[in-house]
Amino acid sequence: MKLFSSNASPYVRKVRVLIREAGLTDQVEEVPTTTTLLQSDAALMAANPLARVPSLTRDDGPALYDSRVICRYLDAKANAGLYPEARLWDVLTLEATADGILDSAVTGIAYEKRLRPAEKVMEEWIDSHWAKIARAAKVVNDRWMSHLAGPVDMGQIALACALGYLDFRHDQYGWRKECDALSAWYAKFAERESMKATAPA
């Protein structure tokens, strides 16, 4: 299997962390890919018509894309148990919360600043997306710490990758405000070998 990959993409990082946690590093070749919103990589386009990373090519079927699809597939292939049936809906909800944080952080804020001329950047748009991120972090801090204290699952991995991206791209906004418990959990989770091996540069 081949994973079209980008070191800075938090969606890719979710998959790369899962690969390491599930013991699949010898089965998945990571292919560094340069693709942007304005210019797509040809090999990536051939595998994924949306030309987005992550995308996973397989020998026994069409390419898979979207990080949640790829993560479910690899977890099932490795029988890694990162989507435990007994906690499945909580895991999926936490993963969706993490991906929502990323959608606002990437599409809502990073692309707004990166793609628009400075005089056309809409600060109200950025503020509204940061408000969503801050609310989500606070809800996790207030309601999800017992889940985060449990065995490692995909919800935890997704959340850690989202928080890592906030540190990487949006540290100036300070997601840790009023989130002491979540901040302490993340500091510990970030020391896992899978997280350190996939940290964006």
Write the layout of secondary structure elements.
Layout: E1 2-5, H1 10-21, E2 29-32, H2 42-47, E3 55-57, E4 64-65, H3 67-78, H4 88-115, H5 123-143, H6 145-148, H7 154-170, H8 180-189, H9 193-197
Parallel strand pairs: 1-2
Antiparallel strand pairs: 1-3, 3-4
Characterize the structure shown.
There is one protein chain. The chain starts with a strand and ends with a helix. It contains nine helices and four strands. The radius of gyration is 17 Å and the shape is globular. A four-stranded mixed β-sheet has the order 2-1-3-4, with helices on one face. The mean pLDDT is 95. Helix 1 (10-21) links the parallel strand 1 (2-5) and strand 2. It has 201 residues and is an alpha+beta fold. It has helices spanning 10-21, 42-47, 67-78, 88-115, 123-143, 145-148, 154-170, 180-189, 193-197; strands at 2-5, 29-32, 55-57, 64-65.
What's the architecture of the largest domain in CATH terms?
Answer: Up-down Bundle
Low-confidence stretches: none
Number of domains: 2
What proportion of the residues form beta strands (DSSP E)?
5-15%
Structural class: alpha+beta
Order of the strands making up the biggest sheet: 2-1-3-4
The DSSP helix count reads 9
Quote the average pLDDT: 95
Briefly characterize the structure:
This protein has helices at residues 10-21, 42-47, 67-78, 88-115, 123-143, 145-148, 154-170, 180-189, 193-197; strands spanning 2-5, 29-32, 55-57, 64-65.
Provide tags for this entry.
201 residues; alpha+beta; Glutaredoxin; Glutathione S-transferase Yfyf (Class Pi), Chain A, domain 2; 2 domains; four-stranded mixed beta sheet; 9 helices; globular
